[in-house]
Amino acid sequence: MEPITAMQLKNIPALKEVPVEQLQWFIDQSEERLVPEGGLLFKTGDPINTTMVVINGKVRISATLNGHYREIAELNDDSITGWLPFSRAKAAIGNGTCIKDTRVLACAAEKLKANIEQHYELTEALVHIMTSRVREATSSLQQNEKMMALGKLSAGLAHELNNPVAAITRSTAALQKNIRNIPGIFKEMAAIQLTQEQTTVIVDELLRIQAGKPVKPLSLMDFSDKETAIQDWLESKNIDQIETGEALAEYGLEINDLEIFSKQLPHEHLPVIFNWIQSALVANRMIGDLQLSAKRISDLVGAVKRYTYMDQEPDKQFIDIHDGIRNTLAMLDYKIRKGNIEVVEKYDATLPKVKALPGELNQVWTNLIDNAIDAIEVNKKGRLEITTDYDRQCVHVSITDDGSGIPEEIRSRVFEPFFTTKEMGKGTGLGLDVVTQIVQRHRGSVKLLSEPGKTIFKISFPIENN
User: Fold this and answer.
1) Which CATH architecture has domain 6-118?
2) I need a labelling partner for 190 at 20 to 30 A (CA). Which of 29, 259, 303, 378 fits?
3) Quick one: fold of 313-465?
4) pTM summary value
5) How do residues 147-175 score in pLDDT, each as one tens digit?
């Protein structure tokens, strides 16, 4: 096997600006490793104390996260991995399995650290690799956190959408049944040969009944009493139609309203007439239910579009912070109601607008509000308070929950990446780290105040952004 040369390393794009002398020094200080297919170049937990250049081969880095196998990265010819200047990584986060015979040049980190000043261009190249890695990791982290945020919202959103969809399905089935009965009802109405005056009475009363439907539904007790009274009246007129009594009670009719039909129309025709009225009222109710359900779906879609800022420019823009908070609360509404949580919003209507990426700020509100909901959840009920205000320098948003609080011994760690107190599968430990990164990118700050029974996250953005 031919020895590795400095020119061979110089052909690697990341090292092309490094002088040959420095690359030769790197080779002289390194050891060559040959790892066969299926072998491990490194394993989870191994200390990161060497810089490795993959001369040729292929290495798959994988790990088990939350009980699931996950591929993290793949190293190919000319890849550079391991220790890099300014890296805080101490140990390998996964196994590096060679999926073909792999040849690696490995240089101890201590040797590189001791000769940084003598090999400036080599150090600069390694730092550039490090910054690229940070950029890629940050982008991946943000994408993963977006997916986590989406996951937090999707279950509640699916439930919220399922309710109006189920109502639409029920209403269309009932309306279809009603439409199938129209020919028979028409035949019965035609057979009784009503006069023009009688037809006018029926139509006018029907329109009055429809227009007079109570805006607020009757209580269960009031509805039951009214339905019983109407059913008794119908039976006294030999009208044996339970569904008719229910429909008339829903529209809030009194016995005096029914007497109008009894006084102006032949008694023997009342069963046919009330059957027709019942059919019209049910159809009207079904259409109303369809309209309400369709509006609910439209409102939910609108909330999603506002939350994600679809149809808007992806650049920073002057925004009212309250809009994003309200949209986030709308997206988390199902979880809030499920947790029996009272939401108190205390907003300063004169709050200055902030120049920001609205989608990123929504990630902040989602993480903080979702964490507050989880903290309250253990108590089966609680209170979530969101307050906004400002002073001469900053706009402030405070999110307060009355959960159990954050123990003093871990408060200093809650913003660390991958630190979480949630059970496996419920959290990645990335949420507050991402919150911090987003807020800092907007030149803001995040502060935590916690005591037993109370936790406050205070987010501040400088007004000078405006």
Assistant:
1) Sandwich (2.60)
2) 259
3) Heat Shock Protein 90 (3.30.565)
4) 0.52
5) 666 666 666 677 678 878 888 998 898 89
